[in-house]
Write a structure and sequence with these properties.
By secondary structure, the chain is an alpha/beta fold. It is built from eleven helices and ten strands.
Amino acid sequence: MSGRIGACSWSLRAGTPKHLAERLAEAGLDAVQLDLSPVRKGHWSIDDTVEVLDEAGITICSGMMGMRGEDYSTLDSIRETGGVRPDQHWKANLNAAQGNAEAMRGLNLDLVTLHAGFLPHDREAPEWSKMIDRLCELTECFVEEGARVGFETGQESAETLLAVLEEIDHPDIGVNFDPANMILYDAGDPLEALAVLAPHVFQIHVKDAVRTSQPGTWGTEVPVGKGDVDWDGFFRVLAEREIDCDLMIERETGEDRVGDVRTARELLERVLC
């Protein structure tokens, strides 16, 4: 693969661009996916962010948009509050998308990833048309700026996500593939899902998890290499399907974030050698 190996900025819990650069250096990385919220809200200036990371030799590969009001405490709560589904947050999320698109222009980025929210598997479901319309409107904010949009996997099966992509039918709308999310949400086998979505994959989140033993509850995120993701098999599918994209390490739990990201980087380097 010729894609870059980096980390997600939110995984490293950095409060400033300088702090982010330092933590990436500790992890041995020179690429990052950037949470756009601090830039959009004015906490991080575009000029300072670009200057600091450029001086540190760090490439910003993509952006990430979070949605207002998301509650990840349980599977039921995120099903109700995730992505573009909640009516009470729709206008705020659309406005945020417009602000994030402007930030991406200043950062010279051409890819943003986000959670669409739980997508209905039945095209006849009442939520289907509403979510398709909202996703089209929201993603147009980015497409108008020349950017691609990757919906993150996990909150639905690969087949459902594929049906949504086919319904939207836009070459700049695709997938940010996260194998751990398929396990955390108990949404299917990561390798089978990757094969289904292969033509649409724009970026990969490198994350690991253990599947729940109690249906309807969360799985458990663990350091890369300690969970249920078959990484050798995963990269075999990448090679077979000729998927060549950036690999962004994501770690959302644990207290040694830099150490866990470094461990993931070392595993990737071994597998890809």
